[in-house]
Design goal:
seven-stranded mixed beta sheet; 12 strands; alpha/beta; single chain; three-stranded mixed beta sheet; 5 helices; Rossmann fold; about 25% helix; 2 domains
Length: about 230
């Protein structure tokens, strides 16, 4: 199937039968028939390749409108435009929304988005008046995507490909880490700032944070985000 559909196809196990499904045209259907000897087809309405966009809707959080580029942003509101792509973070996930909600209530200063993904939290921080804003991620694709998100929103981020659990970190007023529980605990143990906003874990979980005091918590859709201050 790969030479016929190099962009990808779906595999479905039906008992002891493996079904391969692909979106194609009449010429492609003839290729499938010639390659496999039998096939079945159904008509698909035009525009199927864009239907995934229906699942990405704008949200409002922390005084910001956050949405995809194909939805016109409202006039007169601070916005963050983020293209759902190869890195985590559209703004719609509960952990992202909770982080931005908590971020909006903090004193402005320097921020490190530790594990920045798409850069949506870092760009939101810049929109909220924080600065300078640094955004680090171990994944080079995430760093590239965050740069594109910053450019699309006309904000400046200090970006770096770095492992926030191992590499040297700059001192900032506030670190935001929307990663996962064990990584949050390891990051807090490094004490990269005097204040931290953390998320990426469920509402019934709390990071082990020796030397920190939990000052606030937001819970959304079964997920949690916390504000920690260093003791």
């Amino acid at each position: 199937m790969l030479p016929i559909a190099p962009a990808g196809f779906e595999e479905v196990e039906l008992g002891d039968v493996l079904e391969l499904a692909v979106y194609t045209d009449a010429a492609g259907e003839e290729q499938v028939e010639a390659a496999f000897g039998s096939s079945a087809s159904v008509f698909v309405e035009p525009g199927w390749e864009h239907r995934w966009r229906e699942f990405h809707r704008p949200v409002r959080v922390g005084g910001l409108w956050i949405g995809p580029p194909w939805v016109p942003p409202p006039a007169g509101e601070p916005t963050v435009v983020v293209d759902p792509g190869r890195a985590f973070g559209t703004g719609a996930h509960a952990t992202t929304r909770a982080c931005i909600e908590l971020l909006s209530g903090q004193a402005r200063g320097s921020v490190l988005d530790a594990g920045c993904g798409s850069g949506v939290i870092a760009v939101a921080a810049a929109r909220l008046g924080f600065g300078p804003v640094l955004a680090f991620d171990v994944d080079p694709v995430a760093v590239e995507t965050a740069a594109q998100t910053a450019s699309a929103n006309g904000v400046t981020l200090s970006l770096a490909e770095a492992d926030v659990l191992v590499d040297e970190l700059p001192r900032v007023d506030l670190v935001v880490a929307n990663i996962e529980l064990l990584a949050v605990e390891r990051l807090l143990a490094r004490r990269p700032s005097s204040m931290a906003i953390t998320s990426g874990y469920l509402a019934d979980e709390t990071p082990s944070a020796e030397g920190w005091r939990r000052a606030d918590r937001v819970e959304l859709d079964g997920w949690a985000a916390d504000v920690f201050t260093a003791l």
